[in-house]
Amino acid sequence: xxxxxxxxxHNVAQLILLLAGLTAIAPxxxxxxxxxxxxxxxEFAVSIHDIELSLSLFLAGFxxxxxxxxxxxxxxxxxxxxxxxxxxxxxxxxxxxLSHTLYGLWIxxxxxxxxxxxxxxxxxxxxxxxxxxxxxxxxxxxxxxxxMIAPLIAPLIGTLCLYLAGWHSIFIVxxxxxxxxxxxxxxxxxxxxxxxxxxxxxxxxxxxxxxHRKALAYLAAQSFTYGGLFSFITASPSVYMVYFGVxxxxxxxxxxxxVVMMIVVNRIxxxxxxxxxxPCLLRLGQIIQVITGVLMLMYILISPDPALSMIVFxxxxxxxxxxxxxxxxxxxxxxxxxxxxATATAVLGSFGFLSxxxxxxxxxxxxxxxxxxxxxxxxxxxxxxxxxxxxxxxxCRHNPQIKNGC
Length: 406
Known about the structure:
The protein is an all-alpha fold. It is built from 17 helices and no strands.
């Protein structure tokens, strides 16, 4: 690691800002093209559910990129893997612009996601390389704020591009953004990888995490809550713009209020952590999601003509609870792996995106133009996450002789 970097606060601040910008590529690539989905479906002469499938494919590719990018960076260095990932992302972004078929869109979105996952998974690794303790926590908090702001503005950016130059311009903007981040990182990012004397293989680290019973419980909680989140993200364009007839200019605001709710709940979570431990708040978030999902299902069952305002309000509560679940699931998991926290984080992230891909695929396949597929899958994910986590933790309590985390 470049020692000057660790002592120059100005350079560190610049680097943290760039790493936050790198991390923002994921929500930008996921959310920016949501307002354009109906138009893209019309241009490709397919249903909107076929376009929604591209989001599920992106999430699956992103998970693969995360799982491969971490071990590769430990072996070849952070810089190389970040730049390889950004190069793939840029090439794929232009491939999407030039695509004339649905299959071309799907293929390039997978390649784009793999590149993005390879690059972004190294952001937190670089921060751990150059800092520790409170400094590291503070830097990661700054990145978390960017992660919440990015999905708030991404649909607005997409809508602006859509009205000014068509849906192709959204992916041109993503290309330019990734290229700019790459050029700046090339100038400011030193190689921060620490050469370790411990020769633990990546596979052994992954096995260690996946064989830990309590870690699996929190992994289930986070994975299924990601499934609920991406069920909404995948179906929201068709639900809001097709079912309710909301315009593309209003859609970003209905989408964005969920992000605002997550930011508010995140701040509440920080305060509550002064009095309650993370597993307790994690369970609270899961219970809120289950209750909200069940109430929404009951509402659309008894109401022949559901009101947009009621659905928006219910989704706000459901998505806002995400802030209680995700952060506390991560905190509860990495506590078990002080020497493999990066691997544990990569497992959490990749399984979350895989769950999101599966739920998004399920919502798209069940899509019938009504609210039922989205609300049902969201509620099912919430129930499954709470149930599975509870059963795993209960098995640990009832079998204290079992090793590996119980």
